[in-house]
Each structure stands twice: as structure tokens, then as C-alpha cells.
Amino acid sequence: MSSTPPARAPEFGRDALIVCESLVRIYQTGSVEVQALQGLDLAVDSGEMVAVVGASGSGKSTLLSILAGIDAPTAGRARVDRWNLLAMSRADRVRYRRHTVGFVRQQTASNLVPYLTARQMVDLPMTTARTPVKARRDRAAELLATLGVADCGDRRPSQLSGGQQMRVAIAVALANQPRVLLADEPTGELDTATSAEVFGALRDVNRRFGVTVVVVTHDPAVSGQVERTVAIRDGRTSSEVLRRATTNAEGDTHVIAEEYAVMDRAGRVQVPRDFREALALTRRVRLALEPDHVTIRPDTAETADSA
Ligand SMILES: Nc1ncnc2c1ncn2[C@@H]1O[C@H](COP(=O)(O)OP(=O)(O)OP(=O)(O)O)[C@@H](O)[C@H]1O
């Protein structure tokens, strides 16, 4: 008797530029084990700009360090472009960090070298990558101009404001034309107006250079400006907000934001706490498949038992 093999689901994130699947990162400090990432799934397409939000300790920085090639995952799958982040040699890691990703840290000063000028700092990664002088000069001028700091080329970090330092840091991160720009709370140390400017600069480089941007932020005003916000809870992606602009008959443009729960590869979905509390959903719930949706109901037997 012949049996048809079950249809295989398409590979998760096959066409994405960044794919994390069931990603785990465990930190061991003495006898204490911290599971910073607990099976995180994430796919980001080329050219997207995505904000990552979540409570302190939820695993955002760990995710970014892994994508930046600074930290290595414990288990799962992580791929950026053609690089498998779980199986990179030391030399691969250097190449990856030099050419594929640019990284901007929260502490503005830690991105910069105190005794170099802005132009020299943008030049440095290109010198390391053996880019010819003329191309280096042109690229540095283009980046400083795009980031609105063309007039700061001869200044050292101490002669720049916090916002200017961050723009220069973004220019440095983009020097070798990476496909991905990662920013860990780039506006965390800045006031509201400067944050908005720096965030606008990130959006500009995303559009102008087509660089894929993943930005970790605590700031709802910042995350509200991107088309996609991914929320991380307890080391997993828990929900996503997608935003799109629509124009009504009067010509007014509105942004519509829709929140989605994220289902992991095993079919697990996290039901938000306010939904659980509103319907007293506890350990056991009743699931039913309807023609175009699934319902989740309280366990009436359990409710009756406890009455
Ligand atoms: N090097 C490390 N050694 C041990 N534990 C760590 C290390 N780095 C992070 N952790 C732990 O892993 C968990 C996730 O940390 P992570 O910094 O990724 O969170 P986060 O969401 O970025 O937090 P925050 O918003 O406060 O920066 C936390 O419990 C943290 O204490």
C-alpha cells in the first residue's frame, strides 16, 4: 500500500534576510542559569525597518548582540543573509561584523573614538576593509551629509551634541555598506526632540540605502513610527503591531495599527493577560475550529466545579 508523505510546511523565513527560529541563549553565572532567549522566532525581510520592544530583561539586547555577531546563541537557528550565526569561524565572524552588519549602541560615547574626528571615524572601518582612498572619501562625505552632520566632519566627539554623536555613530556603522543596521536603544540617552531627529535619521537611511534596520527601543513614540513593532516577552516574540497608512475620501491620511499575537512553530500563542482576566481563562480552555477562525472559551466544567 502506498501512502502519500505529509506535505511539508515551507521553511520558516526562507526568503527573509534575518531569520531566528527557536532561538535559545542561556547565560551561566556560577550555578545560576538565566534563559535570556527561550525559543524566539523572528523573520525580517530585506529593506524592512522593525522596532523591538519589551520590558527590561525580556531579552532584547541579547537578541541584538547575537544578530550583531558579538554573542553566540546556545541553540536554535539564526541566519542573517548567507551567514549561519551558530556555525561561524572566528574569521567568518570578523568578516560578518565588518561587512554584513552595522551596530549602534545606546551609550553614544561608546560608539566613538575620543581622539578621532567624525570623518576619521567614518573612514576607519573602510580602511580596515581596504577600501581605496577615493571611495572612502566619497562615502564618508555622503554619509555625513545624509545624516545631517556634514559640517561636523572635523570635530571630535567632545565637540558634538548627543544627537550629533549618535548620527556620526550611525554613519560609522554604515561605512562598509552593511545589509543590516542594528541599533540598541539609540535614543535612550536623548531628549524627546533629539530622539525624534535621530529616529528620523534612521528612517532616512532605511529608505535611502535600503538597509534593513532593527531598532530596540523603550520609547513608544519611536516604536509608533515604524511599520512593524515586535514585542518580546520572557525571551520570546509575543505580539506584533503592523501599521499602514490609508487615505480617506477627503484625502486625509491616517495610520491604522493592528496588533497580532505571534504563534510559534509548535502552534503556541500567548493570550494577553487582560483577555485571560476578562473571561477568567485559566489552565484549561476550550478550543473550537470555525470555518474561518478559532475560538477559545473558558472551561465551563471547571467554572461549575469551583462554583
Ligand atoms: N552576560 C550576561 N550574563 C548573565 N546574564 C545575562 C547576561 N546578559 C544578559 N543577561 C540576562 O539575560 C536576561 C535578558 O537580558 P537582556 O539584556 O537581553 O534584556 P533587555 O530586554 O535588553 O533588557 P533592558 O531593556 O533592561 O536592556 C536578563 O535576565 C539579564 O539579566
TrEMBL record:
It comes from Dactylosporangium cerinum. This is ABC transporter ATP-binding protein. SUPFAM superfamilies: P-loop containing nucleoside triphosphate hydrolases (SSF52540). Residues 18-259 form the ABC transporter domain. Transmembrane segments: none annotated. Pfam families: ABC_tran. SMART domains: AAA (SM00382). InterPro entries: AAA+_ATPase, ABC_transporter-like_ATP-bd, ABC_transporter-like_CS, ABC_transpr_LolD-like, MacB-like_ATP-bd, P-loop_NTPase, SpoVT-AbrB_dom. Keywords: ATP-binding, DNA-binding, Nucleotide-binding, Transport. One of its GO terms (molecular function) is ATP binding. PANTHER family: ABC TRANSPORTER RELATED, IMPORT ATP-BINDING PROTEIN. Residues 258-301 form the SpoVT-AbrB domain.
